[in-house]
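Running low. Invent one:
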Amino acid sequence: MLNLKLSHNPLIQYRPIRTSDLEVLEKIHGDLFPIRYESEFFQNVVNGRDIVSWGAVDRNRPNGQSDELIGFVTARTVLAKDSDIEEFLRYDSSRSEQTLIYILTLGVANSYRNLGIASSLIREAIKYASNIPTCQAVYLHVISYNNPAIYLYKKMSFQCVRRLSAFYFINGQHYDAYLFIYYVNGGRSPCSPFFQLEDLLERRLSKSAFANSWTTIFPRELIKLLVTSAKSGFKMVAAKLWRKEDRKPSKWSKCKESGSLLPTKHNKRMSTEGAVSQFV
């Protein structure tokens, strides 16, 4: 559907952000976000220094602006052990290379809203994360009053796992933030009932007297196969339960009103100077 703010039919395409995008990138950030970003941040984005990014352009945009940014997402790879969401991961301390993708900023020019551009940009970040074998999740923060962004992440199956009190400090005022996580490559929360059940099953079967006694008759590979088969059965049951749960009324309002699914452990206050945070 044609956006009423546009006088033409847009043709949206996506590409990496380049050095030539610097001026427009700074302008859109300034127009959309209440936080002022330092020039170093933008230089890192356009030059790809520890930041990956994707830009949206409108190939049908007139007046020679067909390659000018109208939307963007920026992200950074972080080590899971160095992140502040380790407690929400099935973290294996023996695998120090486990990583995460943290979305820094996401924005779409006002005249190009409601065209699915933000969703497509997020999918680019998720696809990127999914292609990194060591990556377990994509995560981000969103200010508590940004209802359109909250709705978008919920719609895209991000999980709201915590409300962070006074996370942002903008123009002399504190604002809460929600922490959202999207698991990839088999990553999931260690506090989920499914993870606890699977972990208990594996430990019980592999360490039980039954398993130890039968290893004299059957090879340990067979015991592992039994564990895997049992886990697969539980996964099928869990999948059915999840599908059934999806048909129930949303519990998002509970998360939104209670403020947190888990107790807040860390507060991170963001100032208006040099802050790196996520808004839409």
